[in-house]
Amino acid sequence: MTITKIAFTALLFSLTLTACQAQRKPQTVAAKRVATYVAPTASEIEQKVDALLRQMTLEEKVGQMAQITLDVIGKGENRYSSFEPL
């Protein structure tokens, strides 16, 4: 290939890329929507908890109450209970 063909190919390639970039619509600040977090109210949380408890069986409820957490299994003193006398 001659230098002329290489230069022509490079010019054609750069023009193609420029044309592709020009077709994109710039995003304006108004076009972007920012999701805002709305904290649930205490009554909404209570309703969800009540609905979940109604769905659970007795065995599931007992299992949740007797569930062992990682701090009990891990090294160190258990922060929820102590074997020392009161």
Automatic annotation (TrEMBL):
<dbReference type="InterPro" id="IPR017853">
    <property type="entry name" value="GH"/>
</dbReference>
<protein>
    <submittedName>
        <fullName>Beta-glucosidase</fullName>
    </submittedName>
</protein>
<dbReference type="InterPro" id="IPR036962">
    <property type="entry name" value="Glyco_hydro_3_N_sf"/>
</dbReference>
<dbReference type="GO" id="GO:0005975">
    <property type="term" value="P:carbohydrate metabolic process"/>
</dbReference>
<keyword id="KW-0732">Signal</keyword>
<dbReference type="GO" id="GO:0004553">
    <property type="term" value="F:hydrolase activity, hydrolyzing O-glycosyl compounds"/>
</dbReference>
<feature type="signal peptide">
    <location>
        <begin position="1"/>
        <end position="19"/>
    </location>
</feature>
<keyword id="KW-0378">Hydrolase</keyword>
